[in-house]
Amino acid sequence: MNTPPSPRGAERTDGSSVRIGALVPLTRPGWVEAGRHLLAGLELAVGDVNDTGGIAGRPLELVVRDSAADPERAAAAVDELARLGVAAMAGEYHSVVARAAAARADALGLPFLCSSAVLDALTEQPTDWVARLAPAQSHGWQIYADFLLSAGHSRIAIAAEPSVYWASGTRILRDYLAPRGGTVIELDMRALSPTAVCDALVDQRATALLLLVGHPEPAVPVVKAVRRDQRLAEIMIGAPAGQPEFSEWAASLGDDGAAIPFLRYLPERLGPLGARVETALRERLAQAPSFVAFEGYDTVAVLADVLRSDGADRARTAASWARVAVEGTRGQIRFSRTPGISVWQWAWAPVQVVERDPAEPDRFRILHTG
Question: With DSSP H G I counted as helix, E B as strand and the rest as coil, what are the percentages for the chain, rounded to 5?
Answer without folding.
Answer: 45, 20, 35
